[in-house]
Amino acid sequence: MGGCCISTPLVNDQPPPQQPQTQHVEPKNDEVKNEEVIKNDGFVNWPFTEFFLSDLTTATKNFSSDEIISENAEDSSNVVFKALLSENFGFVAVKRFKIKPWDHPDYFADDAKEVGELKHKRLVKLLGYCSDENEGFLVSEFMPNDTLAKRLFHQKDMDWSMRLRVAYHIAEALDYCNNAGFASYSNLSAYTVLFDKDGDACLSSFGLVKEVVDCDRRTKRNVTTESVTYRFGTILVNLLTGIQILPSQAPEMINGKDVTDLMDPNLNGNFSKEEAATVLALATECLQCEYRKSLITIELVATLKDLHTKTQIPSLETPEITKQQDEASSSSQQQQLGHCGTSQAQHEH
């Protein structure tokens, strides 16, 4: 396929009249941005790009339903497709907005470009965007090893040490985003936590490109299920219990409960009660957080890092597990709950 998505960012061809040059956005936190590395080496030098719709149409096989990787796509205003830009670069994820979620195209473009400047090993890299009349598109790296939701709620094989590692990695990503000036994240959940080729948990970047839509929430001072910290607390509850719940149900699920009564039975008792109690205390604190104070704190990250360090496991666990899971995938998928789907929600912002 031709067009800007392959040739323009990488060579010195004359760009189309409206094709923006790769823009450098001054980091909001120089130290944070300069010290971090991108996880996927295949796109490490990829400049942020305004894609042509024709290129994305080709890459997604005309937005074929066979390429959809987001859950409940028929009920969603936002659908994510697996796409092949070229054989040389491999797969990407393309998020298509059926309903335009911004007030003005320039707001969307500017917001997307700023997110594209973020570089962190725990954050999926945003590669570019496309705006076409009543639709918008975001393009990111493709994460090959499923979502936290699929592994935790359906495959149900995640051990305790891996759960601690996931909690630490996502807290690390959110802390980085906050320090870089992105304190808001749309619809943070187990579906926006993705596993890369090394089996490490990464945060989808799609949810960061929603600040224009979510501006009405920024003035709220009460506890809200849209708070980043509240949502992170819900993920901690997911990791403890192995149960998928609505964010609004999280406080009731843990209120007054002993940690041993909450723990996922699929762990078969293979967890540290002391560590689990610490995670429960963090979840409780997160679920009580006021919106304007909804920050993943240094102390929270440090606590999860300490827990993760005690139970550190090899980075390549997920690919090994994936091979086993692929052999049993057809039978395990039949046992999944219907509303959760088979999603890789790179997918849910």
From TrEMBL:
This is Serine/threonine-protein kinase BSK. Its EC number is 2.7.11.1. It catalyses: L-seryl-[protein] + ATP = O-phospho-L-seryl-[protein] + ADP + H(+); L-threonyl-[protein] + ATP = O-phospho-L-threonyl-[protein] + ADP + H(+). It is found in: Cell membrane. The keyword Cell membrane applies. It comes from the Eukaryota. Residues 1-32, 315-349 are annotated as: Disordered. It is a lipid-anchor. Residues 66-349 form the Protein kinase domain. Belongs to the protein kinase superfamily. Ser/Thr protein kinase family. Serine/threonine kinase that acts as positive regulator of brassinosteroid (BR) signaling downstream of the receptor kinase BRI1. Interacts with BRI1. The keyword ATP-binding applies. Keywords: ATP-binding, Brassinosteroid signaling pathway, Cell membrane, Kinase, Lipoprotein, Membrane, Myristate, Nucleotide-binding, Serine/threonine-protein kinase, Transferase. InterPro entries: BSK (IPR045845), Kinase-like_dom_sf (IPR011009), Prot_kinase_dom (IPR000719), Ser-Thr/Tyr_kinase_cat_dom (IPR001245).
